From TrEMBL:
NCBIfam families: TnsA_like_Actin
One Pfam family here: Tn7_TnsA-like_N
Name of protein: TnsA endonuclease N-terminal domain-containing protein
Species assigned in the record: Mobilicoccus pelagius NBRC 104925
Domain of life: Bacteria
Domain TnsA endonuclease N-terminal positions: 81-156
């Protein structure tokens, strides 16, 4: 890509072998970034409103940390998506200029997809996603992703019936290890297709960590 002020945005991530990598959007190695470890700690303390935890992914065959139940929902959908080949949580910290302001932001998810560009996802309840300060960060992130040739998504939730069905199938899926993975996934995806016959897409939004500290700004 041709260098621009956007592609010079700093990118920091922790590689699969635990090494902190500092580069920029122009030079980042997407293959290494795709397998990045969480770039920030997911905090858990008494009285907090969100509920962080670990999700066992059939896609990565490993635990993926999440910061909220809404983020868990997006992980469930990604795990059932046949286009998704890998899932990374809190994969990178972006830092760069947005006009006169310097912003930092850690997107929630990076989804690597078969024969498609990477998908960067931010998960936020609709009441927070619409706040002007949050929307500005998301708009900046969207511009960065466009400059890098990536797709960007702000995900605010899916239909309750869809998520209830996905959660049920997710429990069943944990025990389907005997058949070849492709056969098991095909069978489960066929079942999910029946659930979506009404036309609801699993990836369609209803509306529009270990080393780095610091809030988005």
């Amino acid at each position: 890509m041709a260098p621009t002020s956007l592609t010079r945005t700093a990118v920091r991530y922790v590689s699969e072998d635990g090494v902190l990598v500092e580069t920029d959007l122009e030079d980042v190695c997407v293959d290494r970034l795709a397998r990045a470890l969480p770039v920030r700690k997911i905090r858990s303390h008494r009285g907090q409103l969100n509920r962080p935890g670990l999700f066992w992914s059939a896609t990565t065959r490993d635990h993926i940390p999440y910061e909220s139940l809404l983020e868990l929902d997006r992980l469930l959908l990604a795990d059932f998506d046949p286009d998704v080949s890998w899932i990374a949580a809190q994969p990178m910290q972006l830092e760069g200029k947005d006009g006169r302001r310097v912003r930092k932001h850690v997107p929630d998810l990076l989804l690597t997809r078969h024969a498609k560009c990477p998908l960067v996802v931010d998960v936020k309840p609709p009441q927070f996603a619409s706040r002007p300060d949050v929307a500005e960060v998301f708009a900046w992130t969207a511009r960065l992703c466009a400059a890098a040739g990536w797709q960007y998504e702000v995900w605010t939730g899916a239909a309750p019936d869809l998520m209830a069905n996905v959660r049920t199938l997710s429990v069943v899926r944990r025990f389907v290890d005997a058949p070849p993975r492709g056969v098991a996934d095909h069978a489960l995806w066929s079942a999910m297709s029946e659930l979506w016959i009404s036309g609801v897409s699993p990836n369609r939004p209803l509306t529009r960590s270990w080393v780095l500290e610091g809030a988005d700004r």
